[in-house]
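COURSE: Structural Biology Practicum
ASSIGNMENT: Worksheet 4, Part C
STUDENT ID: 0417
INSTRUCTIONS: Below are two proteins. For each, the amino acid sequence is given first, followed by its structure token string. Answer the questions at the end about the second protein only.

PROTEIN I
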Amino acid sequence: MRHDGRTASQLRDFRVTRRFTGAAPGSVLVQAGRTTILCTASIDRELPKWKAVPDPTQATGWLTAEYSMLPGSTAPRKRREREKTDSRSTEIQRLIGRSLRSAIDFAALGARTITIDCDVLEADGGTRTASITGGFIAMCDALASIRDELPTDRPVILRSIAAISVGIVSGEPVLDLDYVEDSQAEVDLNVVMSGTGEFIEVQGTAEGQPFSRALLDRQLDLAAAGIAELTARQREILGQEWPLDTNRPNC
């Protein structure tokens, strides 16, 4: 048993409140244990300059992400990022963007930009992975809000995306590390996968001694099982707005 009573393969309690705010078309409050993140998804008709093409009807869309930890999310207080995003936040928001872009057919999206904002209200480990899992839900809600403007014969969302952390703590692989475990881990991995079990990204570091291929495989197996659970939760949370059923129009 782990310090919080979970088994090695057990996720923290994962909770999502949809439509948490009213301004953004996609807005969810994501909680994984004590880690709490507000994920919003916005859509506008402006594209980055580098995406511009002479014929607007041939334009393809884009998705970008921003991530920040609010000052009260950690102890001691984290300084507010007013003028320049710190290197950690930059790396995480790039990961969120890469991960969620893998879900989208940008030609079907057309000349639109999706922006995913992830603001950490409380950090207790796994903020980047919870941002990806919650960001996908917010994105689905945002795209559902413009369903009537999207092609009916070409789905915008191609696959679901979720992410989870795994690591080696006291010599054993464990799933969904909180801060206590993350700070003591001998190996730290973040795994992003599709709902059908394909890898999107794997980030892994040995914090001290190198680790074996066998330990890597055990961690990836834990991650795959955890992501299957999270995908089931995403589907349950979205209900009729789940975009990948074959018996209803996709977003």
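PROTEIN II
(use this one for the questions)
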Amino acid sequence: MRPRVLCAGILVGDLFVPPLPRLPTAGELLVTDDFLMGAGGCAANVAVVLSKLGVGSRVVGKVGRDSFGDFVTSSLAALGVDVSFIGQSATMGTAKTVIIPVAGEDRRYLHTVGANADLTGQDFGSGAMAGVDVVYLGGYFVLPGLQPAAVIELFEAAHQAGARTLLDVVLPGDTQASMDDLRSILPSVDYFLPNYDEARHLTGEQDPKRQAAAFKEAGADTVIITMGAEGLLVRSATDTRHLTAPCVDVVDGSGAGDAFAAGLIVGILEGWPLERSLMFASEVGARACTALGCSAGIPDRQRVLRQMATH
């Protein structure tokens, strides 16, 4: 498939533990079903879901010179993703995450930033933008080498090429990130996609409408705050509204936000009205929650559309 989307950002070797009834006590061996290894991180997750939905993409990111990096790159290439702009860090290993879900609780993560810290504006070669209609950057705030000026340059180049821009963020538990770190970037962002907790941290506001208003006032064109089972809040140039989420049996919520972003990108590429694009994106995000891993539960586009129609 011809790459129509540039997916940039974090790349991770994910190791998923199956849902546990409880955490083991100190020194206890808790036997589980088999673990699942996957190519993860925002950039990889969006590219994988786009492939399932029939859209070609190109990934820009960094991995280490190790077996995890080889796994991430080969997994994406096997799906037809253009991996020619995935670089290898000479000093850092591939980023890794262990995902530990416990029944009745939110997931726990153990993560090492690894080679993602080596991604800089110089990794976006002259051909990275060739032929793409959407530029997505995911995992901002855990990409310490990617400076705001480089993000602005990337997004402005996208606009000059006629492409739309999407920005997603990741906030680690000890983050010091604030609105001040976004003010120069948001005027170049067509779609800003924080979740509720991220938006609350960045703005200091509890109300999603106030959160969206703060991002809009800072320059983002369209703000979409995802709230899990509570749906989403969208603020565009003409409207602010709340949309409900599809109801599914949740196995693992990992990657749901990235799947949502991929679904939104499909709507943008198809020229759908914003509400239809968001309904489709919500359905894709919900499907990501129905199986272990970030994308195993997502069917092809036609099945997603049929499921959307039933909701």
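ANSWER KEY EXCERPT:
Q1: The chain has eight helices and 13 strands.
Q2: The helical segments are 42-52, 67-78, 148-160, 196-203, 208-217, 256-270, 274-288, 301-310.
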